[in-house]
Write a structure and sequence with these properties.
This protein is of the alpha+beta class and 695 residues long. The strands form 9 sheets. It has an 8-stranded mixed beta sheet, with helices on both faces. A 4-stranded antiparallel beta sheet has the order 1-2-3-4, with no helix packed on it. Strand 29 and strand 30 form a beta hairpin. The longest helix has 19 residues.
Length: 695
């Protein structure tokens, strides 16, 4: 009887353990929201949702905010939804379907399912109340007028317009030399400001009608950009950066990238500078989310700068004068939006009540004329992309944590209560109850730089476990203590959870060049083509794992995509004794061609040295000691890293008899537009690591 009871208990225990395992299909079946948008001054909101490759638009409206599916694209076709907007009157939802806006040539169609007749990049409109989507035409980057009657967009590098009140064909507004972009309607909807990019310079122009000449605002030998209308429509604020050319300077030493803020009178076209960035590295052009984040709010100009060492929000009177630093501290701002009355801003920031919040995102709010920042969310959650809704008394956003993927949510500002929408879109067997909670860790690289990471480890298992270092791409990214607000990294978070569930100890490393840890970490010396100093952080991550008592130091692997693929290849080329195996997903392998210098007598003083350093920073120059097997993965229509990088590396590996396997996806892109392809890549990655590290 005792034996039978033991067998019953053992069977039950084994059954429980098995129930805790999950498949790649289960862990990647999360819905991913994007393109959150609201209708200013109303309770209407909309977002796109990718559900296993089926991308659709959902809407919700207060006071109940019950999600409602607005479109019905029911195939895994790889056609993204972007530029989602709600008209000011709340009647229309406008969106772009097609293209690939995470890489180059966004306006060019993508055909990841290899259709004989490829799809197009098209603009659509659909009633907010529901109905059949109506095609406006081929194009991209739509912008709606404030009267909800007109839609301007870009097609073929020129500005076009469609009338939302009828279904007449769209027409070209004007023809301008160069490439037209950054369209924005004036507050009264009668004029359009735009940027005309012309190679080494760019102008800001204003279009009125087909009979009136374009007004160029203070044209100069510069690259003008980011135009924004004043609330009364009489002026435009824009950013001025230097034009191309100039005397060549060092290619290996970081240079200040100047920028200034100008306001122009539309009638006269005359402009004046109201602020100039400090001539320091920190004062250079900001390269975090939203760039300059330039806004004209009532009588103040709002912008973002890294000038105190962290990306913070500032404001200045519209006529110039004293600059007010609105936020301050050792944290960064992202996803900045303004209230309808132009008096407050909301944003996401990596700060909170605990040190771990450095690797999270929470929502903050600040007035635009004084430094009264308030943190609206805190704790173990991750919140991003906030927008004011209603009478600016509530905020729409995406929220999640280490278990729940980010989903659209609504928060009451006064009570701080958050209502998560679309929980019903989680598939029934989604394994959120079996995820491990990532642990924030830190360690030092060989040169003393402090590096952060997240450690994934399932309880129990072998006393000596295999381990994997995950290296993100970008490189201007930051992995978090939970689900990411970016689609690519929600996928890698899911893969890291899968690997941990399979018995790996996984360390996701936030190497230098990434965001979230200040300017000096984001813009380090000797990084990238200037020496790949950031690789020290990846090696330090492997060494950190090797010294953990539960890790078998002979079974440490490394994997990463894009810039992470680049660093993975370096890891295998320089430290095959530390990294026993690697998966290099669409990595950069030869950086010699990244230094682009025009032909001529006048050259940078350190050109030859810079080219040599770039070559020495390339994985293809590090093959002599590469012994570890590698899996190379690349897509045929990759617009971020050309597949030629992997074609060339594969040939070099063959010539040296270095073991490698490969997976090629012919017509997909850098971001695995087809869900089935994403699952295939993830499974191949996990299987390769398991084959070599779980023998």
């Amino acid at each position: 009887m005792k034996k039978n009871l033991f067998l019953i208990l053992l069977t039950f225990f084994i059954g429980k353990l098995s129930a805790q395992d999950f498949t790649m299909e289960q862990v990647t079946a999360y819905p991913f929201p994007s393109e959150l948008t609201t209708c200013s001054g109303s309770d209407k909101m909309a977002w796109a949702l990718n559900e296993q490759g089926k991308r659709n638009i959902y809407v919700a409206e207060g006071p109940d905010f019950e999600p409602r599916k607005l479109t019905h694209y029911d195939q895994d076709e790889g056609q993204e939804i972007s530029s989602l907007q709600i008209s000011a009157d709340g009647n229309w939802v406008v969106y772009v379907r097609g293209g690939e806006h995470g890489g180059g040539n966004a306006h060019v169609y993508v055909n990841p399912t290899s259709l004989p007749v490829p799809p197009k990049v098209e603009i659509w409109k659909v009633p907010f109340s529901g109905g059949k989507p109506i095609l406006i035409g081929e194009g991209d980057q739509p912008t709606l007028s404030s009267d909800s009657k007109k839609l301007a967009f870009i097609h073929g590098g020129q500005a076009w317009m469609a009338n939302l009140e009828n279904e007449e064909p769209a027409k070209k507004l004007f023809t301008s030399k160069g490439s037209t972009g950054s369209l924005e309607w004036s507050p009264d909807g009668k004029r359009l400001v735009f940027v005309s990019s012309r190679g080494d310079h760019a102008f800001v122009g204003v279009y009125t009608d087909e009979k009136t000449s374009i007004k160029w605002l203070a044209p100069a030998f510069a690259r003008d950009r980011s135009p924004r209308w004043s609330p009364d429509g009489e002026k435009v604020v824009f950013v001025r950066t230097p034009g191309g050319g100039g005397e060549p300077d060092s290619l290996l030493v970081q240079q200040h990238r100047p920028w200034s803020i100008w306001t122009a009178d539309v009638e006269s076209g005359e402009a004046e500078q109201i602020w100039k960035a400090p001539e320091t590295l920190e004062g250079s052009v900001p390269t975090t989310h939203g760039g300059f984040n330039l806004h004209w709010a009532v009588d103040r100009i709002v912008f973002l700068s890294y000038k105190d060492g962290w990306p913070h929000l500032y404001s200045i009177p519209e006529v110039g004068g004293v600059v007010t630093q609105l936020t301050k501290g050792d944290f960064m701002l992202e996803h900045i939006t303004l209230s309808k009355d132009g008096k407050r801003a909301v944003f996401s920031a990596n700060t909170g009540s605990t040190p771990e919040d450095l690797d999270r995102r929470h929502i903050g709010m600040v007035s635009l004329d004084e430094a009264d920042m308030e943190l609206l969310t805190d704790g173990e959650g991750i919140e991003a992309y906030p927008f004011f809704i209603g009478e600016s008394d509530r905020i729409a956003m995406f929220s999640g944590d280490f278990r729940q993927p980010l989903l659209p949510s609504v928060m009451d500002i006064e009570s701080k209560e958050i209502k998560v929408l679309s929980l019903d879109r989680l598939v029934e067997d989604f394994p959120l109850d079996h995820f491990v909670e990532p642990k924030q860790v830190s360690f030092e690289a060989a040169d003393g730089v402090k590096v952060y990471g997240q450690l994934f480890e399932k309880e129990g298992g072998d006393s000596q476990k295999p381990a994997v270092v995950f290296v993100h791409g970008g490189p201007q990214r930051q992995m978090l203590l939970g689900w990411s607000y970016m689609d690519y990294y929600s996928n890698t978070y899911a893969l890291n959870q899968y690997l941990a569930n399979q018995g790996f100890v996984v360390l996701s490393v936030n190497f230098r060049m990434g965001i979230g840890y200040g300017h000096d970490f984001h813009k380090p010396e000797g990084a990238g083509i200037a020496g790949a100093s950031e690789y020290q952080d990846v090696k330090a991550a492997g060494e950190y794992l090797a010294q953990l008592e539960q890790v078998d130091s002979n079974k440490i692997g490394v994997y990463g995509g894009s810039y992470g693929g680049y660093l993975t290849a370096i890891a295998l080329g320089l430290d095959s004794d530390l990294f026993a195996v690697g998966v290099d997903i669409h990595g950069v392998h030869n950086r010699d061609g990244y230094i682009k210098i025009p032909d001529g007598i006048e050259q940078a003083p350190d050109l030859e040295k810079a080219r040599q350093v770039a070559w020495d920073s390339s994985p293809v120059a590090m093959l002599d000691n590469w012994t570890s097997p590698v899996l190379l993965i690349h897509a045929g229509d990759d617009r971020n890293v050309n597949i030629s990088h992997s074609v060339d590396l594969a040939r070099r590996l063959e010539q040296r008899n270095i073991p490698y396997e490969y997976l090629v996806i012919p017509d997909d892109t850098h971001h695995w537009m087809v869900y089935a392809n994403m699952v295939k890549v993830n499974q191949a990655t996990a299987d390769f690591l398991k084959k070599h590290l779980m023998k």
